[in-house]
Amino acid sequence: MRGRRTARIVLLMMVLLGALPLAGCWDRTEVNDLGLITGAAIDKYNDNLISLSVQIFIPRAAAGGGGTGGMEMSGKGGGAGSTFVHSATGENIADALSHLQEKMPRKLFWGHAEVIIFGEEQARSGIGDDVDYLMRAPQPRERAYIYVCSGKARKSLEMQAVLERDSSEALREIAKSKASMSVTMTELAQMLTDQSGGAALPWLRQNPARSKHNPDSTSNYTNGTAIFKGDRMIGVVDEGVTRGILWLRNEISNAVITVTPKGSRGTVSAKLLRSKTRLIPHIKDGNWSMTVRIHVETAALQNASSANLLSSPVDVKNVEAAMNAEISDRVKQSLKKVQKDMKSDVFDFAGEFHRAYPKEWHRNKARWDDIFPRIEIKVEPDARLLRPGLTNVQSTTKAGEEQ
Amino acid sequence: MKATADSQPISSAMEDNYKTLCDIYSKCNDIIFRELKIGGKTESFLVFIDGMVNVEVLDLHIVRCLQHLTEPLTNENCMEVLGGELSISNLLSVESIEDAVSHIGMGCITLFVNGITLCFSMGLAKWEKRGIEEPAAESVVRGPREGFTETMSVNRAMLRRKIKTPALKMVPYRLGRQTHTEVNLTYIEGIASEALVNEADDRISGIDIDGILESGYVEGLIEDSPFSPFPQMQVTERPDVVSAALLEGRVAILVDGTPFVLIAPATLFTMMQSPEDYYQRFYIGTLIRWLRYLFFITTLILPSLYVAILTFHQEMVPTSLLLSIAKSREDIPFPALVEALLMEVSFEALREAGVRLPKQVGAAVSIVGALVIGQAATSAGLVSAPMVMVVAITGIASFMMPQYSAGIAIRMLRFPIMFLSGVLGLLGLMLGIIFIVVHLCSLRSFGVPYLQPIAPMKGNEMKDVLARSPIWMQRRRPKLTGRPNNVNRQAPGMKPEPPKGNESS
To answer: Which domain holds residue B422?
Structure first.
C-alpha cells in the first residue's frame, strides 16, 4: 500500500519533470547572442524619415590576448575599437530599429543603453514621438541620460573616448557628476507631459579635432542647455545661463562661487556645501509673481583677497553679500533669457502655481503662455559662509596695502 | 545444527553444555574452549572469543585461582565462593544458554562447571581500539580536542566526565537481529521533557533490523520525514556538542561501533551552529553566524542566479559587469546552464574523489583538479572565467556549514534550482526557493518545527539564532517539544561587572 503510494508520487514527479522539456522550446537568450547597445543617436534624415544610430559593444575586440579569451582578461583592448556605430533609417524609431535588426547578426538589446542623443535638427522638429517609443518599449532604460547635440548626433556617438570605455560611457559619467544639466528619460517625459510646456536638455557640442590626421580623436563637450517649448527645441543657452537654470530648478549640487568682496582686493572662492531653492508663488489682484528663495551654504575654498575671513565677521558678511549678488545676477540673467526671450517655462513655475492656487490655475491655465513671460520674479538669495577655514595664509603685499 | 541459541536452561551435566555450545559455535574459529579442573577435580570449561578478552588477567587471576580452589562448588554457594576467590569486579551468574551466548558475544568469559545449573560470566572484555583523537571533520580553534571513538564505554565515559550528575541517564537498547549493537539513549532527567524521552524511546524500541552498523542506520529508521533532503537529526563526534545539547534538554543517541552520535530534536539553525560560536567572544560568534547564513543562501542560489540573470535578465547586471562577462563568454560554445552544470558536477566529483582518495594521492588530485577546473577549462574556451568564480565561491560556501549532512543537502538542492532558473529564469529561481521554504516549514524533528524559532516565531529564542548572545544573557533553555521543566539554567544577574563604589575603599 505504502510502496504503491510512493511509486505513484515518483511517477507523478517524473511526468511533471518530463513536461518541462516536452514543449521543446527554450526561450533563453545567451549574452553571446546579444548586440549590446551602449548608446543611441537619433537624427533627422529627411522630412519623413529619421535615422537611428546605435553604438554596439564588440566583445571579441575587447577580449585581449589573441583569441584565447578566458583567464587573461587584460586591461588592453578597451577604449579604441571596442564599439562600433551602425545606422538605419525609418519612419520612426521602431521602424528604423527593425531595419537595423535586419542588418545585424545579433539581437539588439537596449537594456544597457546609457545615453540617448538627439541631433539638433531632430530636436528642432520635435522629439515627442521618439520619447514615446523610448518610454513605451520595455527594454530602453528610463534612467538613460538624454542629450541634444549640435549637428549630427551620430558623430557624437562615433567619437572616441580617451578615459572611458566608449563615448556613451563618457557621457553617462559626465551626466552622473551633475556638474551641469543632466536629464534622464523619466525626467524628460515628466517635463514633456506636465503643464509648464517647457523642457530643458543638456546641450552637447563637439570640440574641434585635436589633430588633422585623426579627425575622430576629439571629445564631446557639454556646457549649455537646449531649451524646448513643447517637444520642439527653440534655442540654446550658454554656460552662465545654464547655471542660473540649475539654481532655479534646485538642481545645483556642485559649484564653486568666486566673488570679489566689497572693500577688499582679490577674490574669494567658496565651495557649495548644500543649496536649497524654494519657489513661492503669489497671485495678488491678478498680478502673478514669484519669490525665489535660495539658501546656500558654502565653505571657503581659496582666499586670494585681503579679507580676513578668520577674525573679521565684517569681512565674512561682505563675502556673503557678494555671493548673494553673484547668485542673484546669475538667476536674473537666465530668467531674462529663458523667461522673457524664449518664453519657455523650464523651471516648472506652472506646477508651483497649480499647487498653490489650484482654482486660479484652472481658470487661467489656457493663458499660461501669455502669463508666464509677465510674471514678476523676486530673487532672495541667502548665502552663508559656514566654514571660513582654520588658517589664513595671505599674500603679504595685499595685506600690507590694506594698511 | 543451529546458529542461534534457544532459551535453553543450563544442564547440570557439563558434557551436555559443552556439546550445545560446540553446536552453536560450530565453524567459529575464533571461539576458544578451555577445559580445566577446578581444585584439581571438578570438571569445568571456559568459553570466550579470541581477541576480545583480557588474556593476561585470565591467565594470571582466573585460571590459576580456579585450579587452586579447594572449596567444593554447589548450586547454592557457588556465587559466594567464586566471588570470594576470583578478583574480578564484574562477575554475573547466567541461567540460560542464550544469555551465556550473548555474554560471550559481548566479550565476557563464561565458566561452566560440572554439576551446577548456572554459568558464570566474567566481564573481562578488552579489544584493540583506537585512541581518542581530535575529530577531523569538526575541528575547532578553541575548545576541547577530544572526539568520540568507536567504543561505547569510552564514549559514555567521556560524556559522564563532562556531566557528572546522576541525572544523566543512559538507557541501553540492543538493536540488530544479527549484530546485537548496543544503542544508548542519553538525556538529563529533569531537563529533557518526558514526552521527548518517551517518543525517542518508542521510536528506538520499534527498530527491528538485521544490523546497525552506524548511527546513520538509526537516524534513517527514526527520523520524521524520510524523503526530505534535509537531515532532521544533528550528528556530531564531539562530546562537548552532545553535552551542550543534553543541557538544552535534547536527547542523544549513542551507537556502539561509530564515533557519530545523534542529537534530537534538531532545527535548521542548530545545523548552522558550531560549538566554537560559544567558546569565542560573542561578537565574533554573531558575525560568523551571519556569515554562515549568507553563504548558506549563496550555496543554494548563486550559480542559479548567475544562470538566470545571464540567460534571461541581462538588464539586471551593471553595464560594466555585463560587458566584461560578455567579453569572457564570447568564445564559450555552451549555454550558461550547461556551463554551470559542467562546472558544478565536476566540482562535486573532485570533492568526492578528494574524500575517498588516500591522503598522499588526494593532494595531487586536488591540484590537478583545480588546474583542470580553473585554468585549463577557461583557456580551452570551455568555461568562462566568471563562471569559475561562481563555482569556486559556491564550493567554498557549501563547506561553511558545520553540519556536513546539511551542507550536502543544500549542495544537492542547488542542481534542481539551477535547472529551474535555466529554464524559467528568475521566476524559476523563486519557484525553487518557495518550494524549499515550504518544505522546510512542513518539516518537524521529534515534534519541533524545523524552522523554530523563526517559524513559529519564538522571540525569546531569537537571541541564539539571529545573534549569539553572551552566556549570561542565555538564562532560559530553548523550549522544545512537550512541557518544559526547569527552564532557567542560570541564576539571574550573572552579568559580570566590577564592584560598585568608591575606588579607594
So the answer is: 278-449
